[in-house]
Design a protein that fits this description.
The protein has helices at 6-17, 77-90, 114-122, 124-138, and strands spanning 49-59, 63-71, 94-96. The protein is an alpha+beta fold. It has a three-stranded mixed beta sheet.
């Protein structure tokens, strides 16, 4: 069994794989501080950090220009996002809406724009109609608990 704390998991890994990942034991955070953010924590590693921006955001909870950190080892990733952020900002910025805070697996709907995407959230009648039409064919275990509009990205 891997155990409940990172040192026990590293010991388990060492015993079962020959690689205990000892270098990952030295972290800049307390294990308890990230317990709700990651499962089966074994430690942390250093990853190069770049910054892109500013990105203009027009949102209900955040508006302004923001710089975005990227922890990556992929070459050209940060500069590619930098170009995209520049284009989005020059076009007036990205519209952002926070409609809920949850983790779930849901179907994806591709809609015309952000206002069309949040429309089902605004109307209980629409919400019920959308989910009623999908539930019989897509959800055989339980009815949906909620509808949260999501804007897909690609």
């Amino acid at each position: 069994m891997m155990g409940v704390n990172p040192s026990m998991r590293r010991a388990w890994l060492g015993h079962n794989t020959g690689h205990a990942l000892d270098a990952s034991a030295h972290t800049a955070f307390a294990d308890e501080d990230v317990r709700t953010n990651i499962e089966n924590l074994v430690g942390a590693v250093e990853v190069p950090l770049g910054i892109a921006g500013p990105l203009r955001v027009n949102g209900t909870h955040a508006s302004g220009s923001f710089y975005v950190p990227f922890a990556t080892t992929e070459g050209t990733l940060v500069s590619t996002y930098q170009y995209g952020m520049r284009a989005i900002s020059a076009a007036g910025g990205a519209n952002a809406y926070v409609l809920g805070d949850a983790l779930d697996i849901t179907p994806c709907f591709i809609l015309k724009d952000t206002l069309a995407a949040i429309a089902p959230r605004a109307s209980p009648r629409t919400k019920q109609g959308v989910m009623s039409s999908l539930s019989p064919s897509t959800n055989v275990l339980a009815p949906p608990a909620s509808v949260i509009a999501r804007i897909p990205y690609w």
